[in-house]
Amino acid sequence: MISLQPDFCDIEIPEKEHYSIEDYSSSKARWCSGCGAHTILHSVQKLCTDEQLPPEKTVFVSGIGCSSRFPHYMKTYGFHGLHGRAFPVASGIKFRRPDLHVFVITGDGDCCSIGAGHWVHAIRYNMKMVVLLFDNSIYGLTKKQTSPTSPLGTHTNTHPTGSVLPPINPIQSTLGLANVSFVAQTVDWKPAHLNATLKKAYDHPGLAFVRIVQRCPIWMRENYEPTVKDPDAITVLNHENGIVLEENALKKFRHIQEHDPSNLVKAREVAELVKTTTPIGLFYQNKEAIRYDEYGAHNLGVPVEDRINAINSLMDKYAI
Amino acid sequence: MSNNSETIKSEPVKIKREQIREAVVEIVSDSGEGAQKCGQSLGTISAKMGNGVWTVEIIPAEIRPPARSKAGASGIRVRMGSKKVTNMGDHADMVVALNEQVLYGRIDQNAYKPGTYLLIENKWATDTEESNAAYTESIQKFKALGYIIHEIPMEKECLKHVSDPRKGKNMWVLGLLCNIYDRDLNIAAAQVKAIFSKKSDDIIQSNIDLLHAGYAYANDNLPMHFTIASKVSKEDFVVMNGNEAVSLGVMAAGIEVCSMYPITPATSASHAMAEKMESAGGLIHQAEDEIAAIGFAIGASYAGQTAVTITSGPGIALKTEFIGLAVMAEVPLVIVDVQRGGPSTGLPTKVEQGDLLAVLYGAAGDAPKIVLAPSTIEECFHYIILARKLAESFRTPVFVLTDANLATGVQPFPRPKIKSAWFPDPIDQSKWEEGVKAYDWDPKTGLSKRPIPGQKGGMYTLTGLAHDEESHVAYDPSINQRAAESRSRKLAALHKTLKEPKILGDKSGDLLLVGWGSTRGAIEEAVERARERGAKVSSLHLHFLSPMEPGLKSIFKNFKKVMTVEINYSDTIGNSLITEENRRYAQLAWYLRAQTLTDIDCFSNVYGQPLSPIQILEMLEKKLDLTLTE
């Protein structure tokens, strides 16, 4: 490539900044040692670097919980708000700011329990943003209470003899929502798949919902250890339009299932695999779904004169 | 009264008119009969003629209560005068009732007095056996109460012009009232045209015919005819209700995001702007719930465009956690609370000033915020513009407290001339100054400049956790104390800029009434009337409730007694078990007692009705032991 010298022509060539991974790293993460969130943080920082996202144009919005500390560890803009309420805040940020890259960091309690109403509607708004559901199936910050995704019979401090209700399947639930446009699942301990999933989600023109099955070594070690160690526990969903792994990476998985992510009915069937295995990959994608952020940005920058005229024409209705 | 006149005379009989200073007129009916449109038109016509006007809707709680039910009165009250009118007045002088049953509810509310004219649709005398009996019984009762009854064949008269009298009877009634009160028939016809501007010429003409027919009927058949002096102003005026004023205020404040969830009586504030909001460069976001509505607004504000959320008491309850976050993280935001009767679902369509303390203190921990209370329709407009500026200057949420009385009350005011200075600057995307922290609290004022996403070098993570100047989570206990002081100090800084409230009447005396919000017109009229009769009473009206306007304690010292007048609940000493020690006061009274260490009394109730001057005068009679009413 020819490099342009400053005196190459009269036009002032802006100095193109290159961002390295350190440009996205803030204070040291305070998650427990062995927590899956550390690898996700690294993978997100890698995505930012790969995509060269200007840190000042990038906003991480979270709720409350272990995972929601995430924005504090990024050197971008961040919004660490209320339990369950990351979606409305992120939607409000994106509504009139198409220039911002918005990420939502939420957990299983945050998204699927206290914020479930917003989850339903955020999917329907389908505003361009990446949503990462850190699902460790337990309330960690408050010390081991049953989460809406805890497997039936999980021993917790609120259900010492085992939880009594079947868990929500966040993939299946999201696939059932109006205007859904991107649903994927990955696990925190398969970095190649995690990275590829984040990249696919970032490129999606709409709301990309990614459930990341996440290890909690403190409260849920016995739940995750078998999955992490057992090479039969994971099934990779494979398709040219799905999350494409390099051949070498794909070879590491024993179970591979072909799944076309344009097929919503099939996606719902595949989502049921959760009962016997952990399916990872892209369940569903529709790049044509209506986007509320496009509506939000459609009348930006109306000149003040025109605004005053519009107000005056409304005021005329009340004139006497 | 019987009607023998079957034809409209082309030359109206010359009638004598009694000159009056003002009149209070009501039109009541079942829901959906157009009474409100009739009254609004009468108000607009009068405002155009240069009269002072206040109109207020009479709203049943149900969308469609059963026909001819006693509690189902839907309608409107119009008060028109030769001078400026600031409230709904005392008892009605003239009532048009499309059926007699709906009058009972209004009579229970003490809306009428002996001598009030009741003009009643007489078709119910012959409609069905059941209605006939009820009608006859009611007329007897109303006569016994001293009302002057005119039974009028409204439907029969309308049928001469239209086949379906339910459509258009209201315009016939408008004509009737225009004749009784000497309203300009040309202005009236223009108003009818304006109402039906989207309809066909035939519909417009038939409604104008009805207007003329009603006018002629009153001219030929009714004995009472009045005239109210008026003076047409050279200034341009607009006439609207408080929600419409809020709506236009939002647009004129340059607010681009109005994030709301439907709730009575606040929703119409969003309806009013809907038509033009997009061409005025903004959008309405109807959120999935009240919590999401404020969360979305906070998101938009955080991203650089100060947003507004409009709600009522139950919505405020749901939004409270987010309000705490906006205070803690210092996000500018405008929150409009159109108060209604509470607690819980309460009285959704009725007025109450019951949210003051909830708004001031309803949060976990200490959450100081700015609270404003407009007292007129005009202020509903201008206070939104003020609120956005304050929110941004002080980096904090600002409440604007209106209520159902302001929301539906209609009053003319000088047409605001929209200024470009009311609009915010474009979102600051300049490079953030190096070394300046995200919360660089000024040690004197607590104020700080906020970085906005997109500003290079300004990156920080906003958090609801206790945080230091750099928005880092506070692990050092001294940080929380310092941060709380900084947020509180902002109110003290604003307080420094406020002026002492003006006093209506003398600066000392036997009694000072203190009000806030929509009660101003009634309080001030009562005080003026009492002073004409020699009472040593004055009043002041608060517009800033947080921070509180300065100088109150020394003002209070000059009066023997100080008392708030509010529309919310307070115990009355003398009622069962209620003593000085356990009495629970009206909300402003609690607050002023705490702020000024003054023994402040209160007069308040929760009948869900706007206060009338006569109610306040009757209270003053007892307090001051004077005769102030006839």
From TrEMBL, chain A:
Coiled coil: none annotated. CDD domains: TPP_OGFOR. It holds the Pfam family TPP_enzyme_C. InterPro entries: 2-oxoacid:Fd_oxidoreductase (IPR051457), PFO_beta_C (IPR032686), THDP-binding (IPR029061), TPP_enzyme_TPP-bd (IPR011766). Residues 64-211 form the Thiamine pyrophosphate enzyme TPP-binding domain. Keywords: Oxidoreductase. The keyword Metal-binding does not apply. The keyword Oxidoreductase applies. GO terms for molecular function: oxidoreductase activity, acting on the aldehyde or oxo group of donors, iron-sulfur protein as acceptor; thiamine pyrophosphate binding. GO terms for biological process: cellular respiration; small molecule metabolic process. Residues 255-294 form the Pyruvate ferredoxin oxidoreductase beta subunit C-terminal domain. This is 2-oxoglutarate ferredoxin oxidoreductase subunit beta.
UniProtKB/TrEMBL annotation, chain B:
It comes from the Bacteria. Residues 249-476 form the Pyruvate flavodoxin/ferredoxin oxidoreductase pyrimidine binding domain. Keywords: Oxidoreductase. The keyword Oxidoreductase applies. Residues 32-216 form the Pyruvate/ketoisovalerate oxidoreductase catalytic domain. Residues 510-581 form the Pyruvate:ferredoxin oxidoreductase core domain. GO terms for molecular function: oxidoreductase activity, acting on the aldehyde or oxo group of donors. The keyword Metal-binding does not apply. One of its GO terms (biological process) is response to oxidative stress. This is 2-oxoglutarate ferredoxin oxidoreductase subunit alpha.
